[in-house]
Amino acid sequence: MKIKRKIGRKLPPPKNSTNTEIKSKAIVLPEQSIVSEKAGLAVSRKGLTLKELLQQTNHHNAKVRKDALLGIKDVLVHHPVELKLHKLAVIEKLRERIGDDDKLVRETLHQLFKAVIFPGRGKDNQGPLVSLMMAYIFNAMTHLAIDVRLMAFKFFDLVVQFYPSSFFLYAEKILQNYEDILRKNQFLDDKSKLKSILAGLIRCLSLLPCNERDHSAAKNVFSGELDIPAHDILHAFEPEVAREPIGLTDIIKPLKDLLPILVGCFQDFMPLLHSSSQLDLQSYDCLQFILQSIDLIVRFLASGVCRNEPDSQILPPCQKPGMITYDQLISPMILKKLWDAFPLNLVRHLSGKGDDRIFMLNTVITKIFLQLSNWDYAPSALLEKFLEFIENSLATKVQSGKMFHEKHLLPLIPYIPKLATLISGDWRSRILKAFTEVFKNSNPESSMKIACLSAVEEMLAPERSPLYLDANDPTLLDYQIAWIQYLPSLLILLDDKSPLCSKAVLRLQLRVAQAAPVNSPFSQEFDTMQYSFRAICYGPFIRLPADIQELAICCLYYFSFIDSLLLHSLVSCCLCKVLEPNLVAHIIEVLQSAFRDGHIQVADYTSFHVTLLSRFQVYPEKIHPAMEYDGKSNWRTYKYVTSIVCSCLSQIGDDYLVFQMVEKIIVDQICGEIPMDNKCAFLRLLVTLDSKPTRLSDQSIVNISHVLPKYLIDVVSNVGGDDHESASVISVKRRRYYLLPSFYLFYGSKRLLNLVLNVMGSWISEVISSLGSPHLTHPSADRSTTVCAIGSVLFHMYKDVKIRQILLSCKIETETMLQNLLNLLSSKGTNLSLEERHKIQRAYDGLRALANNEVVGHS
Amino acid sequence: MEAEVVLASSPTDAGVSCWDLHTGAEHLRYKSCASSPHGLASVAGRFLASSQLRDRKSSSGSILYWSWNKPQVEVRSFPAEPIKALVSNSQGTYIAGGGVSGDIYFWEVATGKLLKKWHAHYRAVSCLVFNDDQSLLISGSEDGCVRVWSLFLIFDDARREEARHLFEYSFHEHSLRVTDVKTGYGGSNAIIVSASEDRTCKVWSLSRGKLLRNIVFPSIVDAISLDPGEHVFYAGSRDGKIYIAALNSPVTSNSNYGLHIIGSLSEHSKAVTCLASSADGFLLVSGSEDGMIRVWDTRTRNITRIFRHTKGTAQGPVNNVLVIRQPQNLNPRTSANSPVSPLRRHGLTLPPPLEKFANSPDENAHAKVFIGPQTTSNHLLDSSYISVQTMEAQIKELQQQGSSAAAEVDIERLKSEQLRSVQMIQQWKKMYENLHQFCVTELLDGTHTESANGPNL
């Protein structure tokens, strides 16, 4: 049978096949479908993904749009990663809402940008983001609805807030937009809107660069720090800073256009001011913002920053362009209306609050006026109006002492020096008088004080103003002297309460001192300053931070004389435990320089050093190696100070004369009752000044020989201990430090050694005699230790090669001493304990061995 | 290697001692010199000048000159006030001195004229230095101020009146006396380094006029010396160490002295008061309070030589060291006693003393004629000074004397003219002859044709 097959046909299934299909009903799992699709995606509280939400922002229903924005906020807050990944996409979509018709939507969007999107971004590339936004912001700024336009300004404000540099990219256009919106006199009814616009404008304008003079002058004084790039390589090329090209010249025109409009706005408020007795807060704020904007614009235009000068680095230094006034940019007519309105007054002033507000506005206007560099050409009536205001306000400030006034007067203070330079006659002294009052009476820790100090510095500083020490102007000189005289009391008043202010005062003092010619009134005033610091510890010196102390020390150099009282107070500073050793050294160094220049008398100078050495307290008394490192021991400082004093005194002049001069003082100190450490310091000083053979007088040698044995015994029994094996390296070194100066004395004078040996020998025989006597004069422990210590001293002497040679020549003394020891050991009827006897025996044996060794070695 | 000598002086009256830097041989000792710090200068290697320490009371200062081959002082000048710092420019044409009142005096060496004097500082000038192109003078003062003066401005009366101040820069950042200032290479773009008693050294930029670096040292630095490559500078301090501070390396603050200080040279001496370095920068010479002059090898940081300035037991401190190229006529000590040949003596007249006061401006500008010293230096710069009068006279003479030279030129010109004329004449002659020939032949031919035609007519 032939099967006919057709192509494309399937064979029917065989009849005997098993059906393997599984049939079942659909299984419905209780599961939320939305979540399952979006597994792993970030969703909002309502379960919508970012993508869906973004789509919804285009929804025709305003409520949906708003909800979508809220949802986006929700997502981004809870999943910050989403923002990182999709920020440009998100912004691209959201920017369309900037010009949204619905107010709530716009508000929500603003919130979203403000709270989430802008803060959430790192420092990465901001260019695309801003440019994405700006197109729509500009669009909205020209929107028909006023509300949308207002909001657009708010958005721009936000952008500037987070990316300040973006202002300069769009400055010209933005300023034009501001000009347009402010031109229409439409906000008198709704002042809050005007306020918000102006707030944004102020933010932009405050970004304008201004002349560094007004600000850095004050800054330099008070920080005192210079911006030194510490990590640069000096001869390297300057790092290429990616500078945004700021087309400042392009901004000038829109700024100039903006100025009359702002003045116009200001004028719009005038009727209100004249009609009502009370200035409400809203209009006050508006007025303030308007004036601030004008102030900022004037500051920029007057500063001349906008003129791009040729790179001054290329020019030789002498050809740098000087100050050129740029006031031509501001025509006097524009601001005239402002001047006419000044001073603002309420018709009936009832409340103090209103007065304060008006006062504040007046100060801002005054500041605008003073910022112009050509105000001194202004008509005299106008000038007087301002001067009167300044004088009055400075004076009232003093009377009322209100914080409010102080805060708002602050911006006027930097202009005082300029006023003092440019105005003349009666007004000058009136202004200076008022200023001096403020300077003296302001709270010492306030910023007012600091501003005043900066102004004073400018008026005293030689380079900054031509009026420095103008002998033709006795009034100014009087004020200058009054300021200088006030400084010390201010410093004492400040104490350690305001280091910033103290530093400013000291810097000013230093400047005055450096610049004051010798015998000028200034230098005399400066010299009299020291009388104020005679009080204990050089004023509040000790409690101030180290950098201020450094400044104070530097001031010392410039006193044309330093009297003993001040030196006395300096000694007590140096002895203060809290003062860093470094600064102690600095004080001594500066005094040395002052001495070299003849500012200190020799007697005062030496007594300073001697007092320092004799009063220096070394602690802890008990020397322990571990104490060295816990910061408590000042032994190192002691060593340091001693060496500095030695070198200072040795540099006074001719060695011989110096020695003669101080010999008696030093010997007296050594013979006096002072601790071992100070004795050591004086011995070192003596050795430094002395030569070989010694210049010590016979009397001094005798005197020293009385105390030296005691000193030596103290050293060997206190430092290092008798146990030579266990003594650490440190204590051996330290003992050497104490013994060495006396050894040097022995090198110089054999007679001294003789005498000392005699004294020690006599002590031993004293011990023997006391042993013989029935009544014990010394407790037995003391006897043995004295004898042992003498043994130990001799032992150390023998170890020193040079002393050993001298000892050889003093054979008689050594022999007697050994004999004495032997006597002591062999004497009958002594009540030496076994232990004592053993100790003495050991010392004797050791010495005997050494002495014999020597004899053998030399024979 | 060119022979270099070390000169050292001290504030005590111990003279100026002189050694060969490389061999250590001692040269002549110049007597009676008690120099002030920074008060020793070699005037272009021609002679030695030093400002002297005076009694506090004496109103006038003193500057002494020595010629190289005589130990005695040859010229004494008495400026109006004690001079502290003294410096000469590298050509030896000017000497600048800083006075105790803060004035700077500027003299012309050849005539001794006080060209200028100006009030530079509020207190005494402690150090002075010229920059490497000699156009700027940098001064440090006891008031802690470092100022940069442009000599162009100082001598430009018109511009000086316009300028608000004379100085180019005034650096105030030091709080105490400035002890030393040094400049690097690069004219007005160089760096300067200043040291002060406030324990800092500061590096400034001359081009930008600002502080580049502030280095705090453990002790007061009294002297600095710049490495010729400006990689490091050496700071001799009062604790007897010479610190090495980095200028051009990035900050490596693991040194135990402080930021930028990379090491020290020390030999437990007393305070280091002055530093100088050899021309190649490999040897550093330090003078110390203990009267020793130590020569250090900067590569190994070891001492290679020690000189003792003072004799006997007296330990006079050293306060100036200089390293200069050996002057030609400097005799080693051995030959110092041999009589100086009259010829050489003749060639070595020193310039006249420096004047005390500036001349009034109305004085005739060319009143003084001075024939400068014949420098015996081997490559003699043609530096004889000729007064303006002489020069004017010469010019006039040249103008009048146009005679011989001009005549020669004239003759030359006339000769060539004559030659040309002769040629011209010959040319004309030839032309005439040709013409004549032509005419003659024409005439002859004409007659001939005429005669030939005649019968035809």
What does this protein look like?
Chain A: Residues 128-191 form the Pre-rRNA-processing protein Ipi1 N-terminal domain. The complex is a heterodimer of chains A (859) and B (457). Chain A has helices at residues 33-37, 50-56, 62-78, 80-94, 103-117, 127-141, 146-162, 166-183, 191-205, 212-223, 248-268, 270-275, 281-303, 332-341, 352-371, 380-400, 403-409, 416-422, 426-441, 447-460, 474-494, 499-515, 521-532, 546-557, 564-575, 581-596, 602-615, 635-650, 655-671, 676-689, 698-718, 729-748, 750-772, 780-799, 801-809, 811-826, 834-858. Chain A has 859 residues and is mostly helical. Chain A is flat. The relative contact order of chain A is 0.03. With 457 residues, chain B is of the alpha+beta class. Chain B has one domain (4-325): Methylamine Dehydrogenase, Chain H (7 Propeller). Chain B is built from five helices and 27 strands. Chain B has helices at residues 151-154, 157-162, 342-347, 388-400, 403-453; strands spanning 4-9, 16-20, 35-43, 47-52, 63-67, 75-77, 83-88, 94-99, 103-108, 114-119, 125-130, 136-141, 146-150, 169-171, 178-183, 191-196, 200-205, 210-216, 221-226, 232-237, 241-246, 261-266, 272-277, 283-288, 292-297, 302-308, 320-325. In chain B, the strands form seven sheets. A four-stranded antiparallel beta sheet of chain B has the order 3-4-5-6, with no helix packed on it. Classes of the chains: A mainly alpha (859), B alpha+beta (457). At the A-B interface, helix 22, helix 24 and helix 26 of A face strand 18 of B.
Topology:
The complex is a heterodimer of chains A (859) and B (457).
Chain A: H1 33-37, H2 50-56, H3 62-78, H4 80-94, H5 103-117, H6 127-141, H7 146-162, H8 166-183, H9 191-205, H10 212-223, H11 248-268, H12 270-275, H13 281-303, H14 332-341, H15 352-371, H16 380-400, H17 403-409, H18 416-422, H19 426-441, H20 447-460, H21 474-494, H22 499-515, H23 521-532, H24 546-557, H25 564-575, H26 581-596, H27 602-615, H28 635-650, H29 655-671, H30 676-689, H31 698-718, H32 729-748, H33 750-772, H34 780-799, H35 801-809, H36 811-826, H37 834-858
Helix pairs in contact in A: 2-3, 3-4, 3-5, 5-7, 6-7, 7-8, 7-9, 8-9, 8-11, 9-13, 10-20, 11-13, 11-14, 13-15, 15-16, 15-17, 16-19, 18-19, 19-20, 19-21, 20-22, 21-22, 21-23, 22-24, 24-26, 25-27, 26-28, 27-30, 28-30, 29-30, 29-31, 30-32, 31-32, 31-33, 31-34, 32-33, 33-34, 33-36, 34-37, 36-37
Chain B: E1 4-9, E2 16-20, E3 35-43, E4 47-52, E5 63-67, E6 75-77, E7 83-88, E8 94-99, E9 103-108, E10 114-119, E11 125-130, E12 136-141, E13 146-150, H1 151-154, H2 157-162, E14 169-171, E15 178-183, E16 191-196, E17 200-205, E18 210-216, E19 221-226, E20 232-237, E21 241-246, E22 261-266, E23 272-277, E24 283-288, E25 292-297, E26 302-308, E27 320-325, H3 342-347, H4 388-400, H5 403-453
Antiparallel strand pairs in B: 1-2, 1-27, 3-4, 4-5, 5-6, 7-8, 8-9, 9-10, 11-12, 12-13, 13-14, 15-16, 16-17, 17-18, 19-20, 20-21, 21-22, 23-24, 24-25, 25-26
